[in-house]
Structures are given as structure tokens and as C-alpha cells.
Design brief:
mainly alpha; flat; 39 residues
Length: 39
């Protein structure tokens, strides 16, 4: 339960940061966690 909360919390903040940067006209690129993790 705690790990799920931490994961969702960081996802929420990543979305907030992405929104703020996009509103300023910056291209934030790919923000999907699965795309950021190399396999």
C-alpha cells in the first residue's frame, strides 16, 4: 500500500511539472515512466 502511494504520488508531481513546463512553451518530451526505463 505504501509503495503504491509513493508511486502514484511521484506520478502526480511529474504530471504537475510537465503541465507547468508545457504552459511555458517548453517541450518536455516523453514522460511515460515505461518509456524512460530501459529494458
Amino acid at each position: 500500500s505504501l509503495m503504491l502511494h509513493l508511486f502514484n504520488h511521484q506520478t502526480h508531481h511529474r504530471g504537475q511539472a510537465t503541465t507547468l513546463l508545457s504552459q511555458q512553451g517548453l517541450d518536455v518530451g516523453v514522460t511515460d515512466l515505461l518509456a524512460l526505463i530501459s529494458t
